[in-house]
Design a protein that fits this description.
The complex is a heterodimer.
Chain A: H1 2-14, H2 17-20, E1 38-44, H3 52-60, E2 63-69, H4 72-80, E3 88-89, H5 93-101, E4 105-106, E5 135-148, H6 159-164, E6 169-172, H7 175-186, H8 195-207, E7 212-216, H9 220-225, E8 231-235, H10 236-246, E9 251-254, E10 260-270, H11 276-286, H12 289-299, H13 306-310, H14 316-319, H15 328-332, E11 334-336, H16 342-359
Parallel strand pairs in A: 1-2, 1-3, 6-7, 6-8, 10-11
Antiparallel strand pairs in A: 4-10, 5-8, 5-9, 5-10
Helix pairs in contact in A: 7-8, 8-16
Chain B: H1 3-37, E1 40-42, E2 48-52, H2 55-61, H3 65-94, H4 99-110, H5 117-128, H6 133-141, H7 154-179, H8 183-190, H9 195-223, H10 227-233, H11 240-248, H12 254-284
Antiparallel strand pairs in B: 1-2
Chain lengths: 361, 285
């Protein structure tokens, strides 16, 4: 179901709608009555365009506090201990589900977000937030393989090349994604809650982990850049970032044919937010076709904004790069991670710890 | 009349109140909480819930003991290497006649503390990497054909730990040797001892308190080291500190993390006990 949904997304993207729809674009305007107010945003690091926030401040006459985090867990821990004053956060899919269950999110005021129809319909109503009560997509992307083109001149098309590589490899410190990849090979559900299947995934990875030198918490691209590894399993945006920084062809990103993980990051309002109204306004601002396109053009992640894509505001180069917007064939094999519940979570944690212990033997 | 002594006792107690309160609130109380949590079950998102269980201790002493033993081994090796490097260095510094030279060298020992520990550990990554300084140098000299795999090994962790904790070995030994009266050595020579014998029978026993203090100061933080194995050890150099860290971040397991901490604390206490006993025997002798 999920897969067909994503397949539809990409087919939509591929349609030559891009030039057909050329209605006039009117710049986003801020609703009245927010002058002098303050908005506090808590977002992932390097995950916004340079002018996104200043333009919003100018448009609404408000000031924005901008704070960053490095992982869903870090953000979650801050909010769980009592929201220190943030109005807007950017949790990934499974985290939205968990925060909603724990009562850590407040529902969006959709009357204040007229730009919702701009979004790709198939990215809405995801299993982690069925009616988009609490969240709307911000950016989306994939987990795949970043590699040194010098070592793999013919590219990487299969996970088996990663497992069998005679050299250094970095895995991603994302237990559900890594086990999910193993489940692809074992023919089991990536979001399985079955203990035996989780242990089988652990053993599958362990048998193929002889070349692993690091299980990197979101800095695999740095290891790749520094020559410490030939392959890093990473988020697509991070690998693109280093290719972009070096302005060279030394690194490339691929989604192996067997499939991989697709993730969606979402805009949401945490409980006890001091200014939820302005947060709703900011969400509407982000969902504007031009603002969304500028954002994607800067950070190079896939936009969930159909209007941005159709309006031609997003650079061709980004739109046609399968590392950013995957091809329909690739999308068919992508799996999304959902929250698996407390029991399976513990099984996965235990299996992951055990894998880490024996990986170093 | 007799109140003077009573008053003095009373004010002495009052003076200690802030310290006692500090220790109770910020040391004893958290320790008790950690102990209780370590016997609780794991709930949603890794938090502690009822009922009580000893499951986490079974895991700690089961599969996690592999890493616990590795941590103890690495910490012991770190202590040994620090001692072998640190003792001669401390001896050299404290026996200089030139007071200024002594002060400058001692200053040099603590100079690295001026730079953040994290930055210094990152620097080791640049030194030890496959395309790093050391491999680059050896390759350019033609001494090796392929880079030596140093980074992301237990060797790298050992290097990082020794580098980081060496000053903690040097300083107490320096203090001990500084106080040492070298006329005892003359006496030993007069009684026919050679250099080795004089050192082993006179100098070493009398500077042992410094050696023991240095060993404790290096061993204890090494067992629980977290940054060094994280940055230099990669997947092959995991230590108990990293596993404890994993349990508290994200959807980990706080009760398990607490049990791991308690067991690690027990190891540290045990080594402190050895230190105290050795010290007492030394005093008694």
């Amino acid at each position: 179901m999920k897969k067909t949904g994503l397949l539809l997304v990409v087919m939509l993207l591929a349609l030559p709608l891009v030039y057909a729809d050329s209605h006039e674009y009117a710049a986003w305007t801020c609703p009245e009555g927010f002058e002098g107010q303050t908005l506090s945003i808590f977002n992932w690091s390097t995950y916004i365009a340079e002018d996104t926030v200043p333009n919003f401040e100018d448009a609404c006459g408000v000031s924005v506090n901008y704070d960053i985090y490095e992982s869903n867990e870090a953000m979650l821990a801050r909010i769980r201990q009592g929201n220190p004053g943030y109005d807007l956060i950017v949790p990934s899919g499974g985290t939205v589900q968990r925060m909603a269950e724990e009562g850590l999110l407040i529902p969006l005021d959709k009357d204040m977000i007229p730009n919702i129809p701009n979004l790709i319909p198939d990215l809405l109503n995801a299993p982690y937030d069925p009616d988009n009560t609490y969240s709307l997509p911000y950016q989306w992307g994939t987990v795949g393989v970043g590699y040194r083109t010098e070592v793999f001149p013919d590219g990487i098309t299969s996970w088996d090349q990663v497992w069998a590589h005679d050299g250094s490899v970095a895995w991603l410190d994302d237990r559900q994604t890594m086990f999910g990849i193993a489940h692809l090979f074992l023919g089991t559900d990536p979001n399985t809650t079955d203990g035996d299947e989780i242990v089988a995934a652990r053993d599958y990875l362990l048998e193929r982990g002889g070349n692993v030198v690091a299980v990197a918490a979101d800095d695999g691209q740095v290891l790749l850049e520094r020559g410490e590894v030939d392959i890093a399993i990473e988020y697509n945006g991070d690998i693109l970032q280093i290719s972009w920084d070096c302005e060279c062809d030394d690194y490339a990103y691929a989604i192996p044919d067997e499939g991989s993980n697709v993730w969606i990051d979402n805009l949401a309002i945490p409980v006890d937010a001091p200014n939820p109204e302005l947060a709703n306004v900011f969400i509407d601002y982000i969902l504007d076709a031009k603002v969304g396109a500028d954002l994607t053009n800067y950070i190079w992640y896939a936009s969930p904004n159909q209007a941005s894509i159709e309006s031609g505001f997003i650079d061709e180069e980004i739109l046609n790069d399968p590392a950013i917007f995957p091809t329909p064939e690739q999308v068919a094999n992508l799996f999304a991670i959902i929250d698996v519940g407390a029991e399976a979570e513990e099984l996965i944690n235990n299996a992951w710890d055990e894998m880490l212990i024996f990986l170093g033997q | 009349m007799t109140t003077w002594l009573a008053r003095k006792r009373e004010s002495g107690f009052l003076l200690a109140v802030p310290t006692i309160a500090w220790l109770l609130i910020l040391f004893v109380l958290p320790l008790v909480i950690v102990l209780i949590v370590s016997f609780m079950s794991r709930g949603r998102g890794g938090v502690a819930i009822m009922p009580f269980t000893i499951e986490h201790y079974q895991r700690t002493l089961g599969i996690f003991s592999i890493i616990l033993w590795r941590s103890i081994g690495l910490a012991a090796l770190t202590t040994l290497v620090c001692l072998v490097i640190g003792y001669p260095l401390a001896f050299f510094i404290s026996t200089r006649r030139n007071r200024l030279f002594q002060q400058v060298t001692l200053f040099l020992v603590i100079l690295p503390f001026w730079t953040n520990f994290l930055i210094r550990t990152y620097a080791w990554r640049i030194l030890l990497g496959d395309e790093g300084t050391i491999n680059g140098f050896l390759l350019s000299l033609g001494l090796i054909d392929d880079p030596l795999p140093m980074l992301n090994t237990q060797f790298a962790v050992l290097v990082g730990l020794v580098y980081g904790f060496l000053p903690f070995m040097v300083l107490p030994i320096y203090a001990s040797v500084e106080r040492f009266n070298f006329r005892y050595v003359d006496a030993a020579y007069d009684l026919g001892a050679n250099d080795l014998r004089a050192f082993l029978r006179v100098v070493l026993p009398l500077t042992l308190p410094g050696v023991l203090a240095g060993c404790a100061l290096v061993f204890i933080p090494s067992v629980g080291a977290f940054v060094t194995p994280d940055l230099l050890g990669g997947a092959k150099g995991l230590m108990i500190g990293n596993l404890i860290n994993n349990q508290f971040g994200g959807s980990g397991n706080m009760p398990l993390g607490s049990a791991l901490s308690i067991v690690m604390m027990a190891v540290v206490m045990l080594s402190l006990l050895v230190y105290l006993l050795a010290n007492r025997r030394d005093r008694g002798a």
